[in-house]
Amino acid sequence: MRDDFTQRTIEAIAKRAGFLCSDPACKSPTVGAAEGHDGIVNVGVAAHITAAAPGGPRYDPSLTREERRHQSNGIWLCQTHGKLVDSDSEHFTVGMLRAWKEAAEKQSFRAIVAPHTARDRRGGPVSPDIADWERIETLGLPPQDDLQSVTLRLLGGAQNDLVAFKRMPGWPRHCTQP
Asked: Would you kindly state where each structural domain of the chain is located, as residue ranges?
């Protein structure tokens, strides 16, 4: 017996990912308008991080039926990456998928609270890859920091320093004129 997600759970997984594929190398939109009528096209899938049934990719027998069906065990992906992660469960581990999910949800949140931040060519906020998260951790910064917020703080600090330097008595006047 499969422990499939309910429709409500599928919608929650999709919305928490901002309807973008959670693969950090993809980030493709998965929901949009149908052409020629009022319908909607959905090319996304709520994939199980640990399988819905024994024998499935990354199956965890220690989970209860409710835990397998819970949104925390799901990740939103485009059809291509949904198939890919289930076809190569040795490469696409539980840890990797959980990291993708967490990054996608953080990006979705940042897109709402800071809509004017840098955006990639697909229109979504710039998302650091897993290596960027590891670099941030090695700097000893708090867990809520990400590459984008650290970069913005550094740029703000540099801009403040430049303003202060321009106010110094020895700063050449020709450097302050447009």
From this structure: 1-113, 128-178
Contact of 53 with 61, CB cutoff 8 Å: no
Put simply, whether the predicted model's pTM sits higher than 0.70 gets the answer no
Position 170, amino acid: G
| Cα distance between residue 25 and residue 133, in whole Å | 14
Rounded to whole angstroms, the Cα distance separating 114 from 116 reads 6
Number of Cβ within 10 Å of residue 30's Cβ equals 24
- With residue 158 as reference, give the H or E element that holds it: helix 147-167
Strands (E), the chain: 31-33, 40-42, 44-48, 74-78
User: pLDDT digit string (tens) for 110-135?
Assistant: 888 876 654 443 444 444 555 555 56
* 3-class state of residue 74 by DSSP: strand
Residue in 68, 44, 45, 40 with CA at minimum distance from that of residue 56: 68
For 16-55, write each residue's pLDDT tens digit: 999 999 999 999 999 999 998 899 999 999 999 999 999 9
Determine the Cα–Cα distance for residues 164 and 159; give it in Å rounded to an integer: 9
Query: Please, which residues have CB within 8 angstroms of residue 43's CB and are 6 or more apart in sequence?
Result: 30, 31, 78, 79
